[in-house]
């Protein structure tokens, strides 16, 4: 097999310099499409031999990742990337295509989106394409502008937690490229929904089981579809269990919002706190400590997204875990599939991860 070109992370592929132009970030993430210099296509057997596993294991790891343990799956994916393996059945790339797929995200500093990008990148590599990352800075205007500009650079786009209205998303798609949304269902197009609302229902039940009777929801941005869906689930669950719930906000989904949110919680008299995302929740923990409020003795706090830092905070943050990487993979798969299949809108489940930031309600 011929010598592979390697990117900065040690994986095979073509490495182009990153650049930023009006918020547009280009990051190449595609490997070669074929195997050796003689033109022989890399097969599952090649990947299996290099990874030291059975062909069936490679097949499961690349087509149904949830059936293979994470360590093995990661090793197989790395080998497949290095060998330039392209999954059979992947949609062919036409000569008039750019081979790039745009992924628009509202905040590059939010670690929740990292796993989504990783999943999208790996699915694109398997089809011989690469990823064009676009930071919309949480602005609906910038989201629309950059998506329109990106139409000459990519063949389709995945919108992560879009801020545009459904009507604007449909209008932009008609005039630009095919789209798939994540965390925004669409009546006229494909989407992938992470069911964080059900996770908040679990969080309410968890806090009530610990004796909390006054809850507060620290809400995210008003333009967030998932924010309102979570609030509806929280209020329904609280009513069913006979407890009181209020909310504060809206708050931007960034750590800086935690200070103001923490003050609003303290003044509310609530003892159980449900927070839009972990970035706000982690900042709130810091503010509570500055005010000599003990977590969970005085207040119990639940975040959402289960980012890496949640398990490392003090106290470790109870959080709603989301299948973010799977969402990225599924979104790209829908985008690259045939027209009938693109109409599917899968819903991915979430679950509550209980850690030290929740405990019995104060007496």
From TrEMBL:
Boundaries of every HTH lacI-type domain copy: 42-95
Domain of life the protein comes from: Bacteria
Keyword Heme carried by entry: no
Matches recorded under InterPro entries: HTH_LacI, LacI/GalR-like_sensor, Lambda_DNA-bd_dom_sf, Peripla_BP_I
Pfam family, one: Peripla_BP_3
Keywords: DNA-binding, Transcription, Transcription regulation
GO terms, molecular function: DNA-binding transcription factor activity; transcription cis-regulatory region binding
SMART domains registered for this protein in UniProt: HTH_LACI
Name of this protein: LacI family DNA-binding transcriptional regulator
Organism annotation: Auraticoccus cholistanensis
């Amino acid at each position: 097999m011929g010598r592979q070109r390697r990117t900065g992370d040690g994986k095979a592929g073509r490495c182009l310099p990153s650049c930023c132009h009006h918020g547009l970030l280009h990051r190449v993430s595609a490997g070669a499409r074929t195997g050796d210099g003689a033109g022989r296509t890399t097969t599952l057997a090649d990947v299996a031999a290099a990874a030291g596993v059975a062909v069936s294991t490679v097949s499961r790891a690349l087509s149904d990742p949830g059936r293979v343990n994470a360590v093995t799956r990661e090793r197989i994916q790395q080998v497949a990337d290095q060998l330039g393996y392209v999954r059979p059945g992947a949609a062919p790339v036409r000569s008039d295509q750019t081979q790039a797929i745009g992924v628009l995200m509202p905040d590059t500093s939010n670690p929740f989106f990292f796993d989504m990008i990783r999943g999208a990148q790996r699915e694109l590599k398997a089809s011989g394409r690469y990823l064009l990352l676009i930071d919309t800075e949480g602005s609906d205007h910038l989201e629309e502008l950059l998506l329109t500009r990106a139409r000459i650079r990519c063949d389709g786009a995945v919108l992560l937690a879009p801020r545009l209205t459904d009507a604007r998303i449909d209008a932009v798609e008609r005039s630009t490229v095919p789209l798939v949304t994540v965390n925004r269902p669409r009546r006229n197009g494909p989407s992938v929904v992470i069911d964080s609302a059900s996770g908040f229902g679990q969080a309410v039940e968890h806090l009530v089981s610990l004796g909390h009777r006054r809850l507060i929801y620290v809400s995210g941005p008003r333009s967030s579809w998932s924010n309102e869906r979570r609030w509806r689930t929280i209020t329904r669950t609280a009513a069913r269990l006979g407890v009181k719930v209020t909310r504060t906000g809206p708050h931007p989904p960034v750590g800086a919002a935690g200070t103001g949110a923490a003050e609003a919680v303290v003044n509310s008299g609530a003892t159980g706190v449900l927070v839009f995302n972990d970035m706000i929740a982690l900042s709130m923990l810091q503010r509570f400590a500055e005010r000599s409020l003990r977590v969970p003795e005085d207040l119990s706090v639940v975040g959402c997204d289960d980012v890496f830092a949640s398990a490392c905070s003090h106290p470790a943050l109870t959080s709603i875990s989301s299948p973010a990487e799977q969402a990225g993979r599924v979104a790209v798969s829908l985008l690259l599939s045939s027209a009938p299949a693109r109409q599917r809108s899968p819903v991915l489940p979430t679950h509550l991860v209980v850690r030290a930031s929740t405990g019995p309600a104060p007496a």
